[in-house]
Amino acid sequence: MAENLRKRSFWTWGFTADEPSLADRQEAAKRIARRTGVEVTPPPVPDLADIDIRAPRLKVPSALQGWVGTDSEERLLHTYGGHSLELLAALRGRFENPPDAVAHPASEEELERTLAWADEQGHVVVPYGGGTTVVWGVNAPEGADTVVTVDLDRLNRVLELDPVSRAARVQAGILGPDLEDALRPEGLTLRHFPQSFPWSTVGGWVATRSGGHYATNHTHIDDFVESVRMLTPRGWWESRRLPGSGAGPSPDRMVIGSEGVLGIISECWLRLQKRPTFRATAGIAFASWAEGAEAVRQIVQAKLWPANLRLLDPVEARQSAGVEDSSALLIVGFESADATQDANIRAAVAIARSAGGRIDDEAIRIDDGKGRATGRGGAVGAWRNAFIGVNAGLTNGLGLLSDTFETAITWDRFAEFDGAVRDAMGDALSRTLGSGTSLSCRFTHVYPDGPAPYYSFSGPAALGGEFEQWSALKAAASEAVIAAGGTITHHHAVGRMHRPGYDRQRPDLFAEAYLAAKRTVDPKGLMNPGVLFDP
């Protein structure tokens, strides 16, 4: 695959082509003003050429200058990840802590030479994929003397395809759409679609334990990884490619979710599947959130393994799917490359109805391989469009503070957990943002032993005070989740943002053991310090 020439946006997710127009932002400002009562003029987008940043604090050797540079624009483009407050800082022209150099190695040899130079000189190394992290995972660590960001965008090819075993050897810098385009002619797919799919990379998915398309069964990238190849300051770490193994702790499991603290993932073997042609979808209404949750529990424990099993509470259903009668909405979807999904969808609907769900038979959409759209119309289609149409730059700086947090909890504790989180966040929103706030929840993924609730909140923001307000709300959310027994993150990774909660969640001896492994492969502690561990 040719070198990726799409230019990354510095103030919203994706590329410059994905940036909302001034007219889009002006219309968004009007909508927000109707909600908050405060009119805000969209701030102008600064020209990168007009932004002053500190000079690089290192000198790149001439032998590396073919792919390592200190260009100001490159350093600005790699200063932040994708959290809305980072993008707001970029929109306001604030780049206080850029990396000192950015490397774009086009081969493993160039990657080796880059890491050897950084290790020899004591430069901190930050691996960079698509830059969509929302947990401060790719920022230059505060206090670091010199920082080199290593962007894998030129290592972006499918190197090998095994159609018999249905697997592919893929370089870490390939973007989601490019991977699918390469697999499509072979009738294959990875079928891993995180919300950041258009702009994120395979290496980023593996490094952060990305959650993807499937709401049940194959929920995380873990389920697709067959082996991983990673460069550490001490050398190469590569696991044997196997369908499964009982030979001790898995070396892949140490890499998946390591967030760049051990090394730089260069490639991996991924398990593939045939592209689905049979589909079935249903949108089922419930009088209450509790009834919907019970239906989800029964369906997932029946092990029908729907690809989509997402429950939206009444607020989420109204805002994202246009449901106006205060119902919760359950979206169920099945897919297969080989068999009709008629029986599966009807079995799921029967379970949902027994738990209080409402749906007419005519509203069950089934495609027996003829290309009939099954998830495009009505409330289901409205939710789908809202989900894939997220654009972080549209409302930034317009007087509305919005964010999300996700977790997971077992079914026996869910009702109490959900109540505690909603109470804590409702109180925090009232104290921090006043009136006009919103709090909603949906299930993004579900397991036989529990759901993964995803909470969204918003409210009127004080211009210039967004970070302080957000910090208070994030602290309240994290405390509520950890205190009630949930995980600090289900699929957004730890980064630097979730470190306090992660420190409380993980066993102390595990932290010591993992840190010992880090010291073995990264003796100087140069790999992404502050993520997972203290610098």
Can you tell me the residue ranges where pLDDT is under 50 for at least 5 consecutive residues? none
The shape is: globular
Percent of residues in helices comes to: 25-40%
Percentage of β-strand residues: 15-25%
User: What is the helix tally?
Assistant: 15
Oligomer: single chain
Which structural class do you get from the secondary structure elements?
Answer: alpha+beta
Number of strands: 18
- CA(first)-CA(last) distance: 37 Å
Rounded mean pLDDT score: 95
Strands across the major sheet, in which order?
A: 5-6-10-8-9
Compute the CA-based radius of gyration.
Answer: 23 Å
Largest sheet: 5 strands, antiparallel
Structural write-up:
The protein has 535 residues and is an alpha+beta fold. It has 15 helices and 18 strands. The chain has helices at 22-36, 72-77, 84-91, 108-121, 176-183, 202-208, 251-255, 289-301, 314-321, 342-354, 378-388, 411-433, 466-483, 499-505, 508-521, and strands at 68-69, 101-103, 124-128, 147-151, 158-162, 167-171, 188-189, 225-232, 235-238, 264-271, 273-274, 278-286, 308-312, 328-336, 365-368, 400-406, 438-447, 450-460. It has a five-stranded antiparallel beta sheet. A four-stranded mixed beta sheet has the order 1-2-4-3, with helices on one face. β5 and β6 (167-171) form a beta hairpin. α12 (411-433) runs antiparallel to α13. The two termini are 37 Å apart. The mean pLDDT is 95.
